[in-house]
């Protein structure tokens, strides 16, 4: 089979012929139709991720067709269209992942290949209204967004919710999930074009975080937010504390802007704020996310699509930050 191989830090992705995986007990072999990139893949290529090993087939997101099934696997049939849960072996505690937890695509070979073997417990029917490329866009970023927005922030109907950094996959999916919960959703971005694009989805307003006083504009417009979903952290985190209503919740799932400094403790405890970290999600959350996607016929925003043979170009687009939505690779 063809696979996209990464052989070392700062190396290009190479398409090579490798043996097709052989399934073992309780595993299935999936013919990948579409896969999607995440920043995780780019960070691994740059050596900015823990537990590196090479060579490796990257890719956490994938959708395809069942090609082979171990005879002990039930309720999965050859030819069935499926999507893969990339969050493996979370463990018995729904609040936090176990020591055995890992994400598909490192250390296990991932979805950037014609075939992948997967434990059957991590395989789910593809939502019928989604194409393979649309289904492949959801798993990792969608699960991260679902846990942050629904489980951790517990967003409710009528609440004012701020999603920072709209344009990234997690932020977009957090926006979708908050909207279907009936929340009043606002966003931040450095691009007025990106803000304008999401207004058609039902977003109330957006604020340019490059503006030195965006938080004052947001407070004046909304009176503050009940919940904030953030993927940046960094120096601007203090502004999120400013715009959060008393008794509000801030959930952050990433730290692309760096370390959080200069937080005034009194701003947090006097406002009775709850600040939570969140990453990925458990099996129940993945299943609940798929049910929400099916119930509301949600569709992801796909920014770029590439053929598998041109996968390195997909990495270059992500590295330049040119995307608005998910980057998908089709076989």
Give a quick rundown of the structure:
This protein folds into two domains: about 1-140 and about 300-330, Medium-chain alcohol dehydrogenases, catalytic domain (Quinone Oxidoreductase, Chain A, domain 1); about 145-275, 3-Layer(aba) Sandwich (Rossmann fold). The protein has ten helices and 18 strands.
**Main β-sheet, in a few words?**
7 strands, mixed
The CATH topology of the largest domain is what? Quinone Oxidoreductase, Chain A, domain 1
Whole-number tally of structural domains:
2
* Number of separate strands: 18
Count of DSSP-assigned helices: 10
Runs with pLDDT <50, length 5+? none
Per DSSP, what share of the residues sits in E-state strands of 2 or more residues?
25-35%
* Morphology call: globular
How much helix is in the residues? Answer: 25-40%
List keywords for this structure.
331 residues, alpha/beta, Quinone Oxidoreductase, Chain A, domain 1, Rossmann fold, seven-stranded mixed beta sheet, six-stranded parallel beta sheet, 18 strands, 27% helix, 27% strand, globular
Descriptive notes:
This protein is α/β, with parallel strands linked by helices and 331 residues long. The protein has helices at residues 39-45, 132-137, 139-152, 169-180, 192-199, 214-222, 237-243, 265-269, 283-295, 311-320; strands at residues 2-6, 14-17, 27-36, 56-57, 61-69, 81-84, 87-88, 102-103, 115-119, 123-125, 160-163, 184-189, 205-208, 225-230, 244-252, 274-277, 302-307, 326-330. The chain has two domains: 2-138 and 300-330, Alpha-Beta Complex (Quinone Oxidoreductase, Chain A, domain 1); 143-277, Rossmann fold. Strands 3, 5, 6, 9, 10, 17 and 18 form a seven-stranded mixed beta sheet that branches. It has a six-stranded parallel beta sheet with strand order 13-12-11-14-15-16, sandwiched between helices.
